[in-house]
Amino acid sequence: VIDGVTRGVSTINGATLWRKYRRDAEIFGEGEPANSVYQVMSGAVRTVKLLPDGRRQVATFLLPGDIFGIERDVYQHTAEATMKSTIWVAGRSKLFAELPDVLELVTRNLEHAENHVLLLGRQNAIEKVTVFLIEMDRRLQSPNVLTLPMSRRDIADYLGLTHETVTRALAVLRRSGLLGINGKTGREIVLYHRRELTELAGATGALDLKLV
Amino acid sequence: VIDGVTRGVSTINGATLWRKYRRDAEIFGEGEPANSVYQVMSGAVRTVKLLPDGRRQVATFLLPGDIFGIERDVYQHTAEATMKSTIWVAGRSKLFAELPDVLELVTRNLEHAENHVLLLGRQNAIEKVTVFLIEMDRRLQSPNVLTLPMSRRDIADYLGLTHETVTRALAVLRRSGLLGINGKTGREIVLYHRRELTELAGATGALDLKLV
DNA sequence: CGCCCCTTTGAAGCATATCAAACCGCGTGG
DNA sequence: CCACGCGGTTTGATATGCTTCAAAGGGGCG
After folding, report:
1. How many Å apart are CA B183 and CA A207, to the nearest integer?
2. Helices (H), B92-151
3. With bands split at pLDDT 50, 70 and 90, how would you rate the model's confidence at B1?
4. DSSP code for A61
5. Which of A169, B65, B183, B205 could form a disulfide with B188 if both were Cys (CB 3.0 to 4.6 A apart)?
């Protein structure tokens, strides 16, 4: 174990196959040459950009099955584990044998980023948190029940909020009967009314909850 | 002229070569099949997403020379002229003969969107406006003097602000002696201190201007 | 030539941030 | 194994940055 990373080695050719990261361990850093691509086996990963004064923006969360680290030249973000995670690692070379697949992946990332721009630019705190929950619910593949693999602060930095505001928005949604917050650490969320939550996320004006 | 669009026709095979759009004319709409790709000849274009209640987010501005409309399946934004503009149009087919070039373009768009996410999520009004000016200054290729090809409202919707806040931020920068606002319509901006503006944009903490 | 839209500025309001404090669980080290 | 401490979550009170509402001047476009 070095720096929070455990390395697994293939018995066939000695190449590294997987690595285990503990919470907050760095997988790659912004500006490093993009020599490897990664896939989440278990746990979760955040990709982060920092401003010089420490302000922090999470661009994406990667969940089991997700591929990341495909970039033109150097990594544009720092990637860190949000919890104990196992990650597959591969050289980037073989990826570029299959250009159409890579294009597909990059395009999907672009669409995600463009939706993120709309979210950050024009949605309020409750809408942001709701969008986040609906997205996680879809991607975690366990309909209406989700165990969040990241902290309130990670969520806040993803949504351009503070961790207190994320907590307060969740409290509003709970008090409105739209979801339940369970578990000793408050990370188990049960969605009771998916329809209404989806409307909130889409800002259709059907409901209009307020923080205060 | 139909719907604010004038069509030019090739004398060779009858295919449309260019179109002229007046201010606010739609070039393509979100959700339409992405059958054509475009290049700005003159003028400027914004790509926009709308929320059901009318809130509006500008994703990008396209300036002369820029190519846009390359998408997987359907357009993810509506594209509109911000002023009288001339646009080249081509069928998408020939583009996909050159996959690496397309990948390059999509990747550049992705990097722009990721930077936009950081801007919207974690920078304040003055930083946002400064980032915008530095970006336009670079892309318009007329060092330190720029004629903005879009309204304050377009800028505001790009930066996740209101048009009043954009005006106020520009006034602060002008009163600080960092730039001049000229021309009868206030769209001619002269950057006096590029170094300081760049630092403001990067949030290095060197200067700290306030709106009020 | 006229009108509508754009820009600017001021005053008041509101959404979210900031500061503060308590509780709790988990991991760590003794 | 247990105690301790640190980080995470929650809630309250206050502060602030940006929005909202309002109004006036001016220019470009039809």
Report:
1. 45
2. 99-122, 125-140
3. low
4. E
5. B183
CB nearest B106 (choices: A59, A103, A204): A103
A100, A116, A118 member nearest B99 (Cβ): A100
Choosing among B30, B110, B162, which should be mutated to test the A contact, i.e. which has the most A CBs within 10 A?
A: B110
**Cβ neighbours of A95 in B, within 8 Å:** none
> Which residue, chain included where needed, has tokens 């369970």?
A182
Mutation target to probe the A interface, by most A beta carbons within 10 A, among B46, B48, B57, B70 is: B57
Q: Is the CB of B186 under 7 A from strand C?
A: yes
Q: What is the pLDDT of residue A15?
A: 63
- Closest by Cα among B120, B126, B189 to B159: B120
Q: Are B208 and B125 a contacting pair, CB within 8 Å? A: no
Q: Find all residues with CB under 8 Å of B2, minimum gap 6, and list them.
A: none
Q: CA A58 from chain center: how many Å?
A: 8
Which of B69, B58, B53, B57 minimizes the C-alpha distance to B19? B69
At residue A62, what are phi and psi to the nearest 5 degrees?
Answer: -110, 130
- Residue B9 pLDDT level (bands cut at 50, 70, 90): low
Q: What angle do CA A181, A187, A188 make, to 5 degrees?
A: 55
Q: Which helix (H) or strand (E) holds A110?
A: helix A99-122
Nearest to A44 by CA among A197, A162, A146: A146
Please indicate whether, in this complex, the C-beta atoms of B121 and A160 are within 8 angstroms of each other: yes
Tens digit of each residue's pLDDT, chain A (212 residues): 666 777 776 545 556 689 999 999 999 999 999 999 999 999 999 999 999 999 999 999 999 999 999 999 999 999 999 999 999 999 987 777 778 889 999 999 999 999 999 999 999 999 999 999 999 999 999 889 999 999 999 999 999 999 999 999 999 999 999 999 999 999 999 999 999 999 999 888 888 999 98
Q: How many beta-carbon contacts under 8 Å exist across A and B? A: 111
